[in-house]
Amino acid sequence: MSTMSVSTVPASARPSGRLTLARFRALMGMHAKLIRREPGGALIVLIPVLLLVVFGCIPGTKKPEASLGGRSVLDVYVPTIAAMVPLFIACTGLPGLMAAFRERNALRRFAVSPVPAGAMLAALVAVLSAMAAFGVALVLGLGLGVFGAKAPSNPGAVISSFVLGFTAVMAVGMIAAALATTSGMANGLGMPFMFLNFFFSGLYVPVAQLPHVFQTIGEYVPFGAVMDSWSGEGALWQHLAVLAGYTVLGSLVSAKLFRWE
Amino acid sequence: MPVIEVERLHKQYGRVTAVDEVSFAVEEGEIFGILGPNGAGKTTTVECISGLRAPDRGAVRVLGMDPVGDRDELRQRVGVQLQEAGLPDKLKVRETMQLFASFYRDPAEIDPLLERLGLADKAQARYKKLSGGQKQRLAIALALVGRPDVVVLDELTTGLDPHARRETWELVEQVRDAGVTVLLVTHFMEEAERLCDRLALIDRGRVVAVDTPAGLAERTGGQRMRFRPSSPIEDAELLALPEVDSLTRHGQQLELAGGANLVQAVTSLLARRQIIAVGLRIEQSSLDDAFISLTDHGKEN
Question: Does A218 score more than 60 pLDDT?
């Protein structure tokens, strides 16, 4: 009976609604498949996890160090390694994946389909956000739970700064995604910002061992600010304001520059 | 009621006028061609019809709808294949079809459609691995997956080898035979001549003619003939015929050009004189000639 009544509804009476949940999910599925087929896709989570395991298995990394303010090397590196996940995703993943569409002129194909081209981008951001959340949770869970790194004193500050840190670098990555016409160009635009963030999040040298002037600069680099709110350095509101500033500015600039063709 | 109505369409980018004044109407169930040299304004016209651009002046109605204002409903009923619009290299044929099918309220069944387009054995292939012809067939499949009433095909066979081109033409005819109205944009004369029921010839942003391919070819006057007369005949005698426009001698060979009844008039004169036209060759003027003469005419203005 019910199937009868469905099939008698004239086609034009059914909604032509541009974006239904099912359509959005189909778009997310497409992006997830494309990321899985990208050789770098799995590495986004694998590299940080492997790095953490290496750090966690070296015996000396769990000793408190005076030069790190009484924290161990592992304590310091867990948030830094976790930060690699959102940085990979925002600085190379997002621009590279958008460039893959633009390179083949595929955005035009979506523009003439019933879903708005913006939905395609929104679905990509949704998939990447889920990946980032999963990757960060995995690294932090392993670091704190399995290898016994010291948990941050203010989890609320850490969670909000990681979330805002992600939106900040995504907004900047979106500028690269807005402009890049080839994957080479996407990497060229995204990588310098990624390495800048790696540096100020203490990947190469722990933040505590950087010269004072660099520490001050680091407060104004997204994942420098996130690391500070993890370790409780400086004023939390200032870090969050810096991150919100990147988010707003990056969004405005990328929206202005975005090319659908 | 026409399926597509374009009235005095005008579009410019900055100071460059892409489409100056374009009007035509496409009737239900026909293959209507837009033919013109590169840069004539074909793609801009198609983009206005597809709702990708808003015209500066003039009106466009597709299935009675405004392409920009009724965008959502239009997308459901009009399938568009845009020039050189590709897909990410790593998407597979079947999953791409499934994705786009999910966008439509009443999609076609995917497997029979892939079968019809000769892509069934490529269903699991990645976009990158497809040949040029297969990519174009996938583009047609994607334009058809929503069961549209109208499909717009822009430069469908550019870059295809002659074999793939012919296959694609057959597909377009099948689509029309299934009751779908086709708007075909091309700069290939042979394609327009073979496929289109009617066509609009566009040059420099203006429509210079709308007619059937045969009608357009006739406009340029018609016929040309060459032969060697079996015995001498005076030029004046031939030129006296109203059907003969010009006469050239190449040694023993005569070349005559003239209107649609040239051949009939000349052969009956020769018959009265009991002269045989040895090695007679007749050329009907083609769409090619029409294209050249009509677009040349545009340049004189």
Answer: yes
Question: Which of these ranges, A4-8, A9-13, A159-163, B252-256, has the smallest mean pLDDT?
Answer: A4-8
The pTM assigned to this predicted structure is: 0.81
Q: CA B79 to CA B67: how far, in whole Å?
A: 13
Q: What is the pLDDT of residue B221?
A: 61
* Collapsed DSSP state (helix, strand, coil) of residue B61: strand
Domain B4-213 belongs to what architecture?
3-Layer(aba) Sandwich (3.40)
Q: What is the pLDDT of residue B116?
A: 86
The single residue listed with the structure tokens 């830094």 is A80
Concatenating the DSSP letter of every residue in B231-295 gives S---HHHHHTSTTEEEEEEETTEEEEEESTTHHHHHHHHHHHTT--EEEEEEEE--HHHHHHHHH
Q: Which 249-288 residues of chain B touch chain A by CB within 8 A? A: none
pLDDT digits (tens, 9 = 90+) for B158-180: 778 888 888 889 989 999 999 99
A9 pLDDT band (50/70/90 cuts)? very low
Cα pseudo-dihedral A9, A13, A14, A18, rounded to 10: 170
The number of domains in chain A is 1
Is residue A149 a part of any domain in this protein?
A: yes
Residues within 8 A of A (CB atoms), B 77-136 only: 80, 82, 84-91, 95, 98-100, 102-106, 127
Q: What does the domain layout of chain B look like in residue ranges?
A: 4-213, 221-284
Interchain contact A27–B (C-beta under 8 A): yes
Gyration radius of chain A's alpha carbons: 21
| Least confident window among A7-16, A74-83, B28-37, B196-205 | A7-16
Which chain B residues touch A33 with a CB distance below 8 Å?
90-91, 95
A30 touches B at CB < 8 Å = yes
What's the domain range around A211? 20-257
Q: Which two tokens stand for residue B14?
A: 């900055």
Domain B221-284: which topology?
Answer: Alpha-Beta Plaits (3.30.70)
CB pairs under 8 A between A and B: 75
Record: contact A18-B72, CB cut-off 8 A: yes
pLDDT for the residue A103 = 86
Instruction: Determine the Cα–Cα distance for residues B196 and B33; give it in Å rounded to an integer.
Output: 6
- Contact list, B144 vs chain A (CB under 8 Å): none
Mean pLDDT of A102-127: 89
Residue A222 lies in a domain: yes
pLDDT-derived band at B85 (thresholds 50, 70, 90) equals confident
Chain B residues with CB under 8 Å of A101 CB are: 88
pLDDT at B220: 66
